[in-house]
Amino acid sequence: MKNISKILFGSSGLFVLSLIPSSFVFSQYGGTDTVEGFVDIIIDLLFVLVIVLLALAFLIFIWGLAKFILALKSGGSDEDIKNGKRLIVWGVIAFLVLFSLSSILAVITGTFDFYSGGIPFLPEL
What we know:
mainly alpha; 3 helices
């Protein structure tokens, strides 16, 4: 079991590194010379963190669902059924909290006119 968790955490670390926004290159913002550039980088990191945590919450939800169904099907103990239900509930709570955080970040970036990722604007001739 420990080997599987090492493999999962190691591969998830590589996945997180692949999600690092291009803002670290500083080419879009001109560096952290201004407060706005620094805040843009922080907001991009928070959006990436929310995406990674949403994926983790989804995995917890699916794991709890699988434990619950397998415990019901195989006539497992009440403790296994409770553990499955608990994981399902915590997965749903994590979804709600993370979607709320994502909405708050979207409102902040829209209200204060910060760059929130996406396709950069092309210069006009």
